[in-house]
Amino acid sequence: MGSSASTPNPPPRTEVPLLIVLAEEDDPRKCSGRRLLRAGFAEEVPISRAPPSSAVVLDPHATVPLSREDRPAALRSGVVVVDCSWNRIGKHGRYPAEIPWLARMPVRRRLPWLVAANPQHHGRLAELNTAEALAASLVVLGESARARRLLAPFAGGASFFDLNAAPLQSYANAAGAAGVLAAEAGGWSASDSA
């Protein structure tokens, strides 16, 4: 009687892997991405090594917002955030060119509109720090309790959820990217971004 030697399948993931690329542009003492890495909340992706191509890259210039329909890809390969300077992104309109594989990543999503609560960008629309961005993505992807644990050690962490309670709830409950776009249109006005 022959037996087939097969490798048992690993159990399915229940939490989205959080991946951080450090662009080394911010003050290391204020870098929320570094704090997440030190605390074991996320894994560092070296600039020289691309994550799996099916990973979801958070990109503020993407047209499609992150939504619950991205959860399967995020569970499989993770959510990637690039920890870099907002000033540089604003000036160049893109992520640092020193990360060559970034342009080849096919799954790019922007976060839905949210207000920053961190001390550096408090009250600014869509200028979240790395910790806030990953926490927001966890809420949208259905991991609210984990998002709260992730932001608990940060100044402004609790107020991030207070400031964004209604939109976060709408985005988490939205049916796909179209639902997130509708929630954005219903929850914000042009004057909010000024």
Helix content range of the residues, please? Answer: 25-40%
Number of helices: 8
SSE-based structural type: alpha/beta
The rough form would be described as globular
Number of domain modules: 1
Largest sheet features: 5 strands, parallel
Low-confidence stretches: 189-194
Rg estimate, integer Å: 17 Å
Distance between the termini: 74 Å
| Strand order of the biggest β-sheet | 2-1-4-3-5
Proportion of residues in β-strands: 5-15%
Question: How many strand elements?
Answer: 5
What order do the SSEs take from the amino end to the carboxyl end, as H and E? EHEEHEHEHHHHH
Mean pLDDT: 87
List the helices and strands and how they pair.
Elements: E1 18-22, H1 32-39, E2 43-44, E3 56-58, H2 71-77, E4 79-83, H3 86-92, E5 108-109, H4 130-140, H5 144-151, H6 157-163, H7 165-173, H8 176-187
Parallel strand pairs: 1-2, 1-4, 3-4, 3-5
Helix pairs in contact: 4-5, 7-8
Fold and architecture overview:
Helix 1 links the parallel strand 1 and strand 2 (43-44). 36% of the residues lie in helices and 9% in strands. The chain has a five-stranded parallel beta sheet. It has helices spanning 32-39, 71-77, 86-92, 130-140, 144-151, 157-163, 165-173, 176-187; strands at 18-22, 43-44, 56-58, 79-83, 108-109. It has one domain. By secondary structure, it is α/β, with parallel strands linked by helices. It is built from eight helices and five strands. The model is unreliable at 189-194 (pLDDT under 50).
